[in-house]
Design goal:
Helices cover 59% and strands 8% of the residues. The protein is mainly α and 190 residues long.
């Protein structure tokens, strides 16, 4: 018998099919929950980096501003394929809330990555749903686009401050950490 940990063994010989299936299911669940923990750790780190990006320079009415090769300041209002190819992270001088998340992940080339998308999902959840409601991670693309729009509108509201943007990221980190603890509890029960 192959020992996987104190709780799980891989059945061999004449043990019944149900037991093998149960063991495979437990291993699959363990892998899924471990991957979720790793992703939540990355989201937490990305949120911390995004807060630092905002502290260096925050803006409204654009995702980010950068200095082009001629020294002129340019404002970008989204992450188009052209922007992903032409703007290097070191060129960026100010960002909005969403731009800070994208920039902290590595810049416009990472805008459609799962890490950025899930971080935006969690930030939206933090703003519009709160800690007590379950997090919906796998949203349809149109709904995710709506969440980006909601966060941009929130960022651009007259009177909004960079302190409020960093406070939202801090609340989102709190929810990420609570979700981490919840998943750890599930992993202990697998």
């Amino acid at each position: 018998m192959l020992l996987l940990d104190e709780r799980h063994t891989l059945p061999t010989g004449r043990q019944d099919r149900r037991e093998r299936k149960r063991a495979r299911r437990a291993l699959r669940d363990q892998d899924r929950l471990s991957a979720k923990l790793a992703e939540l750790a990355c989201i937490d780190a990305l949120l911390a980096d995004a807060a630092r990006v905002i502290e260096r320079g925050w803006m409204q009415h654009g995702w980010f501003a950068y200095i082009d090769q001629s020294g002129e300041r340019r404002i970008v209002t989204g992450c188009s394929p052209r922007t992903r190819r032409t703007v290097a992270p070191e060129q960026v001088v100010t960002t909005c809330l969403v731009g800070a998340i994208v920039h902290a992940a590595g810049g416009p080339a990472e805008a459609r990555s799962q890490l950025v998308q899930r971080t935006i999902d969690l930030t939206w959840h933090s703003l519009y749903r709160g800690a007590q409601e379950p997090i919906r991670w796998c949203r349809p693309p149109v709904e995710r686009a709506g969440h980006v729009t909601d966060l941009v509108r929130w960022n651009d509201r007259p009177g909004r401050t960079p302190r409020e943007a960093t406070a939202l990221l801090c609340r989102t980190r709190t929810i990420a950490r609570a979700e981490t603890e919840r998943v750890r509890g599930l992993l202990q029960n697998v």
